[in-house]
User: Fold these one by one.
Assistant:
Number 1:
Amino acid sequence: MTKYEMETIVNFKEAEDTASIYTYNVALKNKLARYAEKYPSLCRLTAQTEDGSRTYEVPKKRLTIMLTSPMSEERKEKLRENCLQRKGSEVA
């Protein structure tokens, strides 16, 4: 299976309280597995395939989709300078 074929699909109906998350993404599968282990009443594995996909069910109110704004070059430079300053003070 190619990476192009390895999808992540978040699916829910407005009338229902739960969402289904189908994914091949390793980081997301690990995150969902940890969440299911910690909160079994909120997240459960509903399916998995031999080729590596997993499907979890979670309450919709536990999901967020976060879009981040691009960082300006000025802000990036300031962060770089702060990091370099911290590194320099740790070495001393």
Number 2:
Amino acid sequence: MARTMRATAAVVAALILTAFAAGPASADPLPGSGTRTVWVVAADLRLHARPSSDSPVTVRALEGSSAAYAGEARGSWVRVRIGGTDAWTPARFLTTVKPAWQARPVWVMRERVRLRSRPTNTSPVVATTFRAERGRLTGISRGGWAQVKYRGRFAWVRASAISTAPRFPTTSTLVLVNKRNPLDPRDHVPSNLVTVAGSSSLRLRGAAAAAMARMRSAAAADGVSFTVISAYRSYATQRSLYARYVANLGQAAADRVSARAGYSEHQTGLTADLSSGGGCRLGACFGDTAAGRWVRANGHRFGFIVRYPDGYSSITGYSYEPWHVRYVGPDVATAMRDGGHATYEQYLGRPAAPTY
């Protein structure tokens, strides 16, 4: 009898699928002991307390989750340990071949979200995150909660508070604007536009304007000087500017250096062009000036990123513009820097936007 059971287990283990369909990514193999690591190939797998579909569900797993095969099988069911829980599932929902996928991050979509040690509102708070901060799905979910790995720690968060494909509204300071993501509506006019310090006509949204003033003061304290030479542009202004570029350069060349109306970051009121004077106005040489180097090294402290960095035109869709800075807030700008994300598209996990 024991020999038969061992043979059955071996056959079932051999039948575990070896194909993997990419989906929401998991973190590293989850805690738990076992003889062999397996991965879930179902989009939202319910694992049971006993090897039958009518037994209680003890844990749920997202596609791509890793588990430990316990070496026990009954019919088409196998026992695994996942997220510290022993459970049963049909072998067809698992694979023994490590998938060659790249983990997709998850973003917080609310202003402040509390991560908890267990999937309950009364469990201890592990950390509090800010909007657009990144974590990583482990693949475990219970009820309306999802488990994430955040700054090296495992925690639980309400699934409704996170997203694997963040799309921030046009009014958000985190809105992504590029050749694939126009403003909505295209002729959007931001609220709370204020005059930039040191200018009589240039305007930015309040938070960006205040951050720009602080950044310029900090640079001046370090002996570095720069000014804002362009900020908010209306839909009509951007349409006229783009038309001039097309007339002078042709459309293909114009699209590398100027945005079409409704697709311009300047229209958000969160973007500014900087200059340190001299003969390097709106030129790549700005990146080699004292001001350009200072902004690149310190802009994140004030919430600014160099939006179109050198060597990333295939992602951003624009030529290198070291003078073009975008306000995303200190938290996100610092997270981008610390995480080594050169472009906003990469940080948000969104597709490259080289063309319209």
Number 3:
Amino acid sequence: MDARAVQDILNMDHSQVIAEGEAAEGPDLGAENLEVNKTLRLSLVMAQAIEEEAKRRGVKPSVLMRGWIEDGLRQSAERPANLSVPLDDLLRAVQQLARPAA
């Protein structure tokens, strides 16, 4: 990104984004390469579990969480839009029904 593109972004009217929560028209800077920060509140227990899992895998926690989000989005996109029961719940129910009664 060159200095002119950065200046264009800084000079944009961001009131539409703030007011409507949607992206305002701006210069096309290759959105697939842009990164934004998002804040996420986690319980202390969850944050610690993420830190431990990231350490176990040898990656940063942000890399681990980004991967989980990408996987979730991909799985969500592969599900039919009219599916009213989450597939994981349905599979769990079928597995329980398939177990022989004791």
Number 4:
Amino acid sequence: MNFIYSIFGTPLGYVMWACYLVTKNIGAAIVIFTVIIRAAMFPLALKQQKNMAVTQLFAPKLKEIQTKYRNNRQKLAEETANLQKEGYNPMGGCLPIILTLVILFGVLDVVYKPMTYFERFEDVEKGSIQQVKEIALEIEKDEYLKKNNLKEDDSGAKSQFSAFERGYAALQGEIRAIGVYRNNREIFEDRLKNKEGVLERLRLLDERIDFWGINFSEVPTVTLAPIILIPVVSFLLSIIQTFLTLYIQKRTSPEAAQQMGTMKIMFYIMPLFSLFIAFQFPAGVGFYWSVSYVLGIAQSLLIFKIWPPEKLKAEAVATLEKRNAGYEAKSVVVIDGEKRSGRISDMSSSERKEYYRKKLEEARKADMEKYGETGDSPTDKSE
């Protein structure tokens, strides 16, 4: 499992390291890193919004075939495949979600391994990270024996020692060692007195892992300490982004939004998922999650402002008209009072324009039925 995390963490680690070299603080490095990641993913977010606009053009026909062939799965699949040939893409918005999860895996790896990615101990001396973890492991073992009045060969001690060893071999080994160092600096200073380069990086890491009074190596708990702000803020920001996303989806594609069904449940689960993550992982992960939400909200509002639903729909019509020159048009089109259906390539230029105009009219009509003739923007609603 550690290998999987490393696959995603290694390339992101170089980006985070560059941010850390500039800021000299892990928290500030995470902020800059998140801005870079969000900026890189902006084209995908915009493409996702445009795909929803395209989906709306097919919503009336999709609803029609789902009703008509609800008891015939094979025919339903065939008709849906025909819509996909025309440009309907139900999976068009999945890539940003997948990338978000991939990046989260990478961030987990980076935050859990500050000695590897931030201070790069191995550049000073090969094997130094393992040595630091071994010292921390010995300290934990000694503390456990003293606290419980046990000896090393006692069965209870052996069992607990095995648990300690697994912890240091796992993903959280490095960040756990940093926590032990913070409370046992003298022991580390003595054991590493001939390795000043390693000691210096330990000192720097211990100093720079704090941000606004929060130790990013600690896992948040229910407490009155500042660290509780990480899960609380993450939860609140997730709620804001969830409702903003649902609102924009309804404005951009009301019928498609209605057909989401159980997918809506996933949106409502996300705030709880964010809360869970914040209480399960080091504060650095929850902080990244929170900053990502802030930027995500700003990104959604920016797209909504510059590319409003009406503009996205117009672009979707133009895109489909250009794309579908050789595919079948299964939707019934009324041209000069006559219903017809056939290949788009067989239509004249004026007939193709009429075909897409009808689709756009259907989408706009659905908007007016759902939101009224003019529609309200988020700003209008707040007023």
